[in-house]
Specification:
There is one protein chain. The chain is built from eight helices and 15 strands. By secondary structure, it is an alpha+beta fold. The chain has two domains: 135 residues, Intracellular proteinase inhibitor BsuPI (Immunoglobulin-like); 145 residues, Nuclear Transport Factor 2, Chain: A (Roll). The strands form five sheets. Strands 4, 7, 8 and 9 form a four-stranded antiparallel beta sheet that branches. A four-stranded antiparallel beta sheet has the order 12-13-14-15. The chain has a three-stranded antiparallel beta sheet with strand order 1-2-6. The longest helix is centred in the N-terminal third of the chain and has 20 residues. The chain is globular and about 60 Å long. The protein starts with a helix and ends with a strand.
C-alpha cells in the first residue's frame, strides 16, 4: 500500500510539474503571398496557441512593440537594425496600456504586424525572421518569453508596381485584385470564398474600415487613434474576424445560399441573399442584406444586416 501511494504521488507530481512548466506555442507566418521589396509593407501573422491542458493567461499591449519583438538576420547571421519607429516607441515615457487575455486549451489568438514597424530593411536579399513574445510585457528580457519558429523571407530589388503589390490567388501565380463586377457578383464571390476558406479572396471586396466603424465602441477608439494606430486596429480587426472573435455573422459558413434581390444606384446598392446553415437534422435560414458602395468602378461591401427566417 505504501509503495502504491508513493507511485501515485510521483505520477501526480510529474503531471503537475508538466502542467506548470508547459508553455503556449508562438508561431509566425507571412500574412499574404506578395512580392516583397525594401520599403514595402510586410504583414506578419503572429499566432499564440495554447496546447497545454491549462488556461493560458497573458497581457497584450495596445502598442504591440511592448509585447513582441522581431529578430531579422541575413543568411550570414548579420542582425538587421531596429526601425526608427521601434526606437521611438521604446524611448517613449507614455504609459503602456494593455489587455489581459486568456486562452483555453486548444484555443489560439492571432494578430497582424507590419515588419517595417520593428526593423529597418533597406537591402534586397534572403533573411531569416524570428519573433519573441513577452506575456508580461517585460520586453528586453528573456525570462518567460515565447520563441517562434524561424521564417524565411525574401526581398526582391526594385520598386513594386501597383499590380505587383496585389495579393496572389491561393495556390496559383495569378494576381488577385478587385474586378469591375456587379454588386450581386461581389456578394456571390465573397460568400464562395468563405465557403472555400480562401481568406484573401474573402477580404477582397470587404471594406474593413466601414465594418469596424459599425461597432460604436471600436468607432470611438478608432477616431482617437493616429494613422499608425488606425492601421493597427484594422489589421487586428481582420485577425479577429479570422479567429471568429468578432462579427461572426459575416464569417459563418453557409451550406447553401441564393441571391434573392439586387437593387443599386450609380454609387450605392443593396443585395439580399438567403443563406442556409446546416445542423444535425435541420437547417437554419437567414436573410442577409448587404450594403455596398462603388468607388473607382469597384463595388465594396460596407455593412450588412441579418434577419432570422426560421428553420427547415
Amino acid at each position: 500500500m505504501h509503495v502504491r501511494k508513493t507511485i501515485l504521488a510521483a505520477l501526480f507530481g510529474a503531471i503537475l510539474l508538466a502542467s506548470v512548466s508547459a508553455q503556449a506555442q508562438l508561431s509566425i507566418s507571412l500574412y499574404d503571398k506578395r512580392i516583397y521589396m525594401p520599403g514595402s509593407e510586410i504583414p506578419v501573422k503572429v499566432t499564440i496557441r495554447n496546447d497545454t491542458p491549462l488556461t493560458y493567461r497573458f497581457k497584450l499591449a495596445e502598442e504591440r512593440r511592448h509585447s513582441i519583438g522581431f529578430d531579422l538576420r541575413s543568411l550570414s547571421n548579420r542582425a538587421i537594425q531596429a526601425s526608427d519607429a521601434w526606437k521611438r516607441a521604446m524611448a517613449s515615457s507614455s504609459p503602456v496600456y494593455y489587455r489581459e487575455l486568456s486562452l483555453l486549451p486548444g484555443e489560439e489568438y492571432s494578430f497582424i504586424e507590419d515588419l517595417r514597424d520593428y526593423v529597418h530593411i533597406d537591402e534586397a536579399g534572403a533573411y531569416v525572421l524570428r519573433c519573441r513574445f513577452w506575456p508580461e510585457l517585460s520586453a528586453g528580457g528573456t525570462a518567460g518569453a515565447l520563441e517562434s519558429n524561424a521564417l524565411s523571407l525574401s526581398l526582391r530589388p526594385g520598386v513594386p508596381s501597383p499590380a505587383a503589390a496585389q495579393l496572389f490567388r491561393a495556390d496559383t501565380a495569378e494576381i488577385l485584385k478587385p474586378e469591375r463586377i456587379g454588386p450581386d457578383e461581389v456578394v456571390r464571390r465573397t460568400i464562395n470564398a468563405r465557403q472555400r476558406g480562401q481568406w484573401n479572396e474573402f477580404f477582397l471586396y470587404l471594406d474593413i474600415e466601414s465594418l469596424l466603424l459599425g461597432n460604436p465602441d471600436k468607432k470611438r477608439a478608432y477616431t482617437r487613434e493616429s494613422d499608425d494606430g488606425r492601421r493597427r486596429m484594422l489589421e487586428a480587426y481582420k485577425a479577429d474576424l479570422m479567429a471568429n472573435i468578432v462579427d461572426q455573422d459575416i464569417i459563418v459558413i453557409p451550406s447553401s445560399y441564393e441571391i434573392s434581390e439586387t437593387r443599386y444606384r450609380p454609387s450605392t446598392g443593396t443585395v439580399t441573399a438567403i443563406l442556409k446553415f446546416a445542423y444535425d437534422g435541420f437547417s437554419m435560414v437567414k436573410q442577409y442584406s448587404y450594403e455596398l458602395e462603388k468607388r473607382d468602378d469597384i463595388w465594396y461591401i460596407v455593412a450588412y444586416t441579418v434577419l432570422n427566417k426560421g428553420t427547415e
